[in-house]
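Homework help board

Subject: predicted structure for assignment chain

Our instructor gave us this sequence and asked us to write out the predicted structure in C-alpha cell form, then describe one feature. I got the C-alpha cells but I'm not sure how to describe them. Can anyone check?
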Amino acid sequence: MASETRKLLVTGATGFLGRHVLQALHASQPDTQALALCRRRADWNRQAWATPLDNVDVVEGGVTGAEGWTGDRRLKDCAGIVHLAAVVRHSRHEPADLYETNIEGTLRMVRLAAQLRCPMVFVSTSGTVGCFESPEDKADEDAPYVERTVGSWPYYDSKIQAERKARALAAQLGVSLTIVRPPILLGPGDHRLRSTGHVLKYLRGAYPFLIEGGMSFVDVRDAAPAILRALGHAAQRPVYHLDGTDCGVVEFFELCRQVCGVRPPARVLPFGVAHRLAATAERMARLAHRKSPLPDPVVIEMGRHYWGLTSLHAERELGYKTRPPRQTLADTIDWLRRNALTPTNS
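My C-alpha cell output:
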C-alpha cells in the first residue's frame, strides 16, 4: 500500500466496539488503513465479520507485555490511535489483570502516541463520572469523578485511574488526548456476548429477580462513528460524552418484553435482600469451586444506582445522534436470537 495512505492504529480490534469502529471506518473512510492490534493473527482470522474489511492490516501484540510490536515499521506516519482495549469485569475477585490492562495498557498507548507524534482517542466509560443515588442526577463532561461511589468496584476504579494518569502523561509528553465516555453499548454484532450479556441472560430466563435501580445504554452503531470523528477534531476537547437512554432496570426489561414478548422476572427485591443472597451464593460457590448462580455482589451494588449522562458538545461537534432505544433493543434481541440462542459463525 502506498506510503501516503492514512493509517490508524485500533486496539481492542476484535471486540464488539472494535468491530463497529472498523466497520464504520471502512464505510466512511475506505482509503484509510486500519492497523488492528491483536494478540495473534489467528484471532483476527477467526472473525467472519472481518472478511469484507479490505482496509485492515493486523499488528500482532497486546497493550501490555514486552512485545516489540511498537517498533513495527507499518506504524510510521500513523495518523492516530483509537484505544478501545480493556478488561470489563464487574467483580472484586482477582482484579490484577484488569488494572494492568486498563491502566498500564492505556499509559503504554499514550507513550506510543508520543513516539509516533499522533493524537489519541481513549474510550473510557460513563461510570467514571455518571453514577448516582438519584435518577434525576446527570453528569456532563465537566463533572468530577465519582470515586466515593464507584471506588470499590475495580472496573470503574481502574478507569478513573487510567483517565487521570493518561491525562497527566499526555500533558507531560505533549500528546493530544481525547477521552470518550459511552454508557453500556447495545446493538447487533456482539460476537463475544459481553456487552449484551445481560440481554442474553434475560432471553434465556436466567434472572432470578430484579432490583430497583437504573441503567443507561446507547447503540454501538451510533457510538462508533462519533469515536472516529473525535480523533483529531479541530476543537481538541479533552472529553466527549456519548449520552444515550437513561431508564430504570425494571423499565428496561419491560421495554425488552414489549419488543420480544419474553416476560422479565416478576420479583423485584430490595437491595439489602438481593445483596445478601448474592454474597452468600458467591461464598458457597467459591468453596465448591463453582460459578455462582446469582449475579456478583458488585453487580447488585451497581444495579441499585443510576447512570445519568449528558453531553455538551458531541452532537454539535461530532455529529453524534442516537436512534430510538426501541430500535436498538429490537436489533440487539434479533441478533442474539439468531446468533447466540441459535449459534452461527457471525
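Reply (TA_rk): Your C-alpha cells look well-formed. For the description, you could write something like this. The CA atoms of residues 95 and 245 lie 29 Å apart. That's the kind of observation they're looking for.
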